[in-house]
Amino acid sequence: xxxxxxxxxxxxxxxxxxxxxxxxxxxxxxxxxxxxxxxxxxxxxxxxxxxxxxxxxxxxxxxxxxxxxxxxxxxxxxxxxxxxxxxxxxxxxxxxxxxxxxxxxxxxxxxxxxxxxxxxxxxxxxxxxxxxxxxxxxxxxxxxxxxxxxxxxxxxxxxxxxxxxxxxxxxxxxxxxxxxxxxxxxxxxxxxxxxxxxxxxxxxxxxxxxxxxxxxxxxxxxxxxxxxxxxxxxxxxxxxxxxxxxxxxxxxxxxxxxxxxxxxxxxxxxxxxxxxxxxxxxxxxxxxxxxxxxxxxxxxxxxxxxxxxxxxxxxxxxxxxxxxxxxxxxxxxxxxxxxxxxxxxxxxxxxxxxxxxxxxxxxxxxxxxxxxxxxxxxxxxxxxx
Length: 385
Ligand SMILES: [Zn+2]
Description:
CATH class of the largest domain: Alpha Beta
Number of helices: 9
Strand order of the largest sheet: 1-2-6-3-7-14
Distance between the termini: 23 Å
Number of domains: 2
Largest sheet: 6 strands, mixed
Strand content: 15-25%
Structural class: alpha/beta
Order of helices and strands: HHEEEEEHEHEEEHEEHEHEHEEH
Helix content: 25-40%
Shape: elongated
Bound molecules: zinc ion
Radius of gyration: 23 Å
CATH superfamily of the largest domain: Zn peptidases
Low-confidence stretches: none
């Protein structure tokens, strides 16, 4: 099969509109075919309805200790965004590669696939693996089953580079996260009879005030040394959406809002989640005591482990050697890196592009970043040769 350049691979990857709500199988079919032709051993891990698959590729000796290059195949939607050119065609202008996913994160995936293809064809001393997930953009839900499946499919890798856009700088830590969809159920009466009903809106506000109080408490506390490296240097709780009520003079039957928490790595995410759940449960009991129909239900819609910095860790040392970047950096958004670390890999983040470009209309990747990414891959191939 053709010896494609990273740019040609990127063109192909971007041409598949792999928005998280749709199948990614056309992309996986193509990439699996190309990597297999190069001599890589490829495996799929299917999702439940078999509309999506993670792709795992192994190049080099069939033994543990691979460098794992990790990316996600899905992208965020383009609907309603003003795009200057077709989002599903890579368009080069002014030294930039425009297209949905060029930055987040098909640019890195193209480079990683290119490197694995080279390693498979040319032979290598240390194995290289590509781990391409789905459903990252809807809460990093695709990586955990993929990582679990990898344990039975390929020899265990040791260092994972997660290529989220970081301007080719090394990121050694990120916050963890979790979130709840909250549904407060009230009891409708005319508002003149307020004490006979339950206003879901007004009761929901009690939970929201608890969130505000928690934020104030977390912000006021002295940060741990690790927390001090983050911006902001504390765990945050945020409610981005709220819906409820039907009329000014009816106690609201329903109030729904969503809470997300971004938690410092040395804090216990489960304890934070449990604290909120306990508060919600107390309100649920209070409401049911008034009206059995009323209450609070929680739906925990995501949970992503933090990436804990590993001073002197293998992935960090590897990325430093490959990029020459000796700074340390942490970020407040979640990635699949914490999930690899939780599964026993040394993990660090380094990828081309600026995270500010992710999810934007006219998303682009600077050509210079893509080229820097290719240099990282060339250095990696040399170090594994
Ligand atoms: Zn991403």
